[in-house]
Amino acid sequence: MELEPFTGFSSKAVQFLHEWQNNNDRNRFQPRKSEYEELIKAPALSFIQELGNKLKLLSRGIEYGLRTNGSLLRIYRDVRFSQDKRPYNPNLCFQHCVNMRSLQQWLVEIFEHQALG
User: Fold this and answer.
1) Is 113 exposed, middle or buried (0-12, 13-18, 19+ CB in 10 A)?
2) Each residue of 17-69: pLDDT tens digit?
3) Torsional class of 4: left (φ above 0), alpha (ψ -120 to 50), beta (otherwise)
4) Do residues 6 and 46 make contact, with C-beta atoms less than 8 angstroms apart?
5) If we measure between CA atoms, which residue out of 42, 94, 91 comes closest to residue 63?
6) What does the alpha-carbon distance between residue 48 and residue 42 come to, in Å, rounded to a whole number?
7) How far is the C-alpha of 18 from the C-alpha of 97, rounded, in Å?
8) Torsions phi, psi for 17 (to 5 deg)
9) Can you tell me whether residue 115 is helix, strand or coil?
10) How crowded is residue 71: how many other Cβ atoms within 10 Å of its Cβ?
11) Is 51 left (phi over 0), alpha (psi -120 to 50) or beta?
12) Which segments of the chain does DSSP mark as H helices, in order?
């Protein structure tokens, strides 16, 4: 997968995340999904790749995945048994780990969108 170098999240991305947190609704999100892909997901994957390559210098066992639910956790929530019925996770989470089989050994959650603002 060819990714652009990570240059940060744009002010439009920050605004998108703030609006998303305040309007966590399928009807509002679905028409804007391509905006999410461009403003949030693409730079997030670039960040994951760049950080992962740097972490590999510290430990050869560091692994990351550039697919959804690899290192970028999915945005959809399982609301079946939850009192909170918001359809999307209000956080944008990344993870890198040692030997993908053992996430418990080392999990790094890098980024929550509240920290952007």
Assistant:
1) buried
2) 888 888 888 898 899 999 999 999 999 999 999 988 888 888 778 888 888 77
3) beta
4) yes
5) 94
6) 10
7) 29
8) -65, -40
9) helix
10) 25
11) alpha
12) 11-22, 26-29, 33-36, 42-58
Cβ proximity of 64 and 96 under 8 Å: yes
Compute the distance between CA of residue 11 and CA of residue 36 in angstroms, rounded to an integer.
Answer: 13
Chain-centroid distance of CA 77 in Å reads 13
pLDDT at 10 over 90: yes
- Domain parsing of the chain, residue ranges: 11-116
pLDDT in tens, 75-86: 888 888 888 888
Per-residue confidence band for 11, with pLDDT thresholds at 50, 70 and 90: very high
In Å, how far from its chain's centre is CA 91? 8
Q: How many CB atoms lie within 10 A of CB 52?
A: 17
Q: Give which of 50, 57, 51, 66 is closest to 100, Cα–Cα.
A: 66
Q: Across the strands, what pairs with 98?
A: 62
